[in-house]
Design goal:
The structure is a homotrimer. Helices cover 78% and strands 0% of the residues of chain A. Chain A contains 10 helices and no strands. The mean pLDDT of chain A is 90.
Chain lengths: 193, 193, 193
């Protein structure tokens, strides 16, 4: 829920930058928050989709969006405040995406990919709707790579027979740790352009 | 069908503004017309999707798109001509979206949301493809709110036991009336920015 | 596979033009390559989606994307090098899209449309993500029309009882031939604007 809230707030921030009103900002925030999980569910044929099955997700997201729309004064401040919940959400989405893919009998590589898609696609949809090139593709600071790393940690432990109660939090913490390190030390991929 | 035609024409208008040729305009018009219903069917796992099951939708949309591409002279005139069919289409899409969601055992709030998504998502896709920020999110004149209102009127009547033969047209008329009032009196949401 | 590779490279070219790094370029290339087939599978309710069922598609696309990202020096040279594989891919996607639609009991017109969607939608998604109006809608040189022509040739032969071993390559070659002719002679639709 913390992660969903962080994704919601990142949608509101972007929508405000585009001078949308509260209806537009709420819509963009909703798409940012549920986009990754929705694409995952559609690709894996998992129905009913998580937010259609349980309306509490949508109500929570709408509440966070409206409150943050009216209380946000500084986008810079908000961005640093959501850094940790956003990284937690990224990790949790990456691990659940990988888990669901494995449940659907996807192979190792595809499950990894599905973890990354689940983690980052909400942000991609947000940027496409706001008429920007997706920051996750353009930014050099590690982001998608953190989702990939967390999903990988989870899956290696899962394959090694580690219980889900240990493997899931390990994957989430791995994502969080790498993401915070990336922001703190301005890490970029050690690859030529 | 009137509503689909209006959505088609709004796609052609936008495509012409972007200087597309007849093929591009027809493609954008098709996506505008069927986009909302397609997203609804995919999210609710309703297959076959309505326009795949019955090819008459697609043939009708293509015919309207080509005719309007060559006969449109004034976008301003066309916009005022499609105002009523567009509002009718919005209302009908909103009510059918809510109906189908209820049939899929979605909760009240999700059914409302699905009504709005069905009504407005074709226009969102049109604007994303034409490289614009979706007007439905940016515009202050009521639009998404009209779909929400119509879906709400329908659902309250439906829950109160009113027959579909009365509840469906009531929802459509509620959308139409609010939309026309919004355009006539330039209504905006009575909310601070 | 040649076609997938060509679509991948066209994604890398566009991503480089937008100054993305290797992660972004690979993501855009992947979406370009599998986008059309994924939209087709989701619309037709064909699960598991082709690249989720068989991970070799994704591995191949990622390998081509990384190699071409680092070896591309001239976008102009690359574009002419991928012209033939791209046209082959377009034809193959168009014919398989039509085939799968027929298997799902879609009507003639819808199967044609599904062929075109399968052929061109990867490029549409690429352009939307890269914040451009889809070239397939904007360009005047024939492209979508070639997919339509190839799907039509295949379907007419199929309906006439010609074996798939003949009808499929005929459709692909029809697409290829029309596309190469369009580039060679700068063909545009013989229609007024």
């Amino acid at each position: 829920m913390l992660g969903l809230g962080a994704f919601t707030i990142s949608g509101v921030i972007e929508a405000r930058r585009k001078e949308m009103d509260v209806v537009g900002a709420t819509a963009v925030a909703f798409i940012t928050a549920v986009g990754g999980g929705t694409v995952r569910d559609v690709l894996l044929d998992r129905y009913p989709i998580f937010w259609i099955q349980d309306q509490r997700y949508a109500i929570y997201i709408f509440a966070v969006a409206v409150v943050s729309f009216y209380s946000l004064r500084s986008a810079r401040l908000a961005k640093s405040a959501i850094l940790i919940p956003d990284a937690l959400g990224l990790g949790l989405f990456a691990v659940t995406g990988a888990t669901y893919a494995l449940e659907s009998h996807a192979s190792f590589f595809i499950a990894l990919l599905m973890g990354v898609i689940t983690g980052v696609f909400g942000g991609v949809l947000r940027d496409v709707i706001c008429n920007e090139i997706p920051t996750v593709f353009a930014r050099t600071q590690l982001y998608a790579t953190c989702a990939l790393f967390g999903a990988l940690v989870f899956m290696v432990m899962d394959r090694a027979g580690v219980a889900a109660e240990v493997a899931v939090p390990s994957g989430v913490i791995a994502t969080l740790a790498l993401r915070l390190a990336a922001v703190r030390f301005n890490l970029t991929l050690p690859l030529p352009r």
